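pasting for ref
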Amino acid sequence: MVYYPVAADTKQQFANGTVEEIVYRLLQEKQNLAQNVMVPSDKLNIEQELYEQIYNE
């Protein structure tokens, strides 16, 4: 994860906020999309993950 300062438009002088606020919203939307992607189960290799969890490998 990357942390960076965000200049906030507390006086609401800009309709969509500062550049940093806009970029932050876009990154949040992209992250949410990436977390909600459906992947076919045959691509997940569940058996290998289960084996590694059981035998701590």
